[in-house]
Amino acid sequence: MEHQIIPYCDLYAAYLRDESRTVGTADSISFPRSEEEVRQILRMLHETGTSVTVQGGRTGLAAAAVPRGGHIMATGGMDHVLGLRQENGRFFLTVQPGVVLLNLRKMIAKKEFPTAGWSSESLTALEAFRTASAHFFPTDPTETTAAIGGMAACNASGARSFRYGPMRPHITALRCVLADGRTVALKRGQHFADGLSFSLPTLEGGAVEGTLPDYTMPRTKNASGYYAAPDMDLIDLFIGSDGTLGVLTELELELLPLPRICWGVTVFLPDEEAACRYAEAVRAQVDCAAAIEYFNSGALDILRQRKAQGGVFATLPDLTMAGDGAAVFTELHCHTREQAMSAVKTLGTLAVQCGGAAEKSWVARTETESETLRHFRHAVPESVNSLIDERKRVYPGITKMGSDMSVPNGRLLEVTEMYRRTLGEEGFQYASWGHIGDNHIHVNILPRDMDEHTRAKQLFLRWAGTVTEMGGAVSAEHGVGKLKAPFLTIMYGQAHIRQMRQLKRLFDPKMQLGRGNLFAVEDEA
Question: Are 54 and 129 contained in the same domain?
């Protein structure tokens, strides 16, 4: 068993960082390929009290997968599809946590899976799946190399969360190994809290018992801290827990019927206020909208610059028509072509009402056209990441400074005005984009030196306070990780942070898992 825990050396340097551009340290690393290996490794580390950072695809933006010393458990080798289940015409796929989203999508689209080790029931369900209409898994974060386990750990969302919600409701069962090697297996609808009290049995016998935090979660898109509510389904406690309660080893995902018509429409509007008014109108009037995405003038400027530089960005669409304004992309999931045509017409009318020009819109009706728009959407964060990497060569301490805050309906214009005003006061270069349909815009400050980096952190703390006062969430989809732990204290207060720590201790008495995630390290002592 000792060979499974490998002393850290520079060969594993890639495992010290994630897409936040934060770099950590580690003493050892392991690459388990099964739940039993996870269990044995955790038992050994539990004896010594060694901290454990669980990793999936390392595509996160909150540094949850960045180790602060101790052990790295890299689950990328746990990449098997374990089976398929059919129930009342619905299909449920069971996977290990290391399965990559892009590969999952391909397997679902082709209806082809590696079936070695599958049960006869799974093989029968597969035959039914192959004759059924096309299906898909709706959660769609920007980074398609994300691992399913990591997506569950931060309750990932993506553009289509406007229609389908985050990762949580699409997970119907999971298995999780706790820090001491005990295992819990949960199916949605099976284990519930009694008010705020709970008792969760382990497979080895006995139970984890305790009390949930008594805070009220915001009524908006939210991935901030533990999901806790009276009489809740206890499966939801582990989804979005940022790798702090246990190691996810299996997840069952519900697959949804693929819409017959998937079109995309991008409109260009004169300014940010017009974009907000347009997005609110689309939300109210277009019932087949699956995603409503926003790009401010700063994001469009960066794309123009990258396109001019050539390389992988040379194929980006021409943005001349955008001018100095903003863009809003709407993805339509429709039952019929007539419904899609009606929605496109409505979008054109709304664009004109908000100061745009319908004839300058982009409409994607084919897969090739849709792929062009997807490239456009994904090129924005990729371009910002490249820019941060360039500046990091001069100032190694610089990291990506991107917000992930959401507000309730009715506060969108207010929060965007607050962002614009405070950014102008500080003189920052920035680009904004994101899920405007969910009142959830990512503001990315692009620090030019360490002074700006420090001031950006201070501004984010001020924003966290303002967003909390609005009834919003300090993290809507990326999770809290390490980078947003101070924001969580602002959102819930010290008393509720103590309740979260107490909850964590029930599952992880030595506070080994995800050291620094959700709570500052000094709070975990």
Answer: no
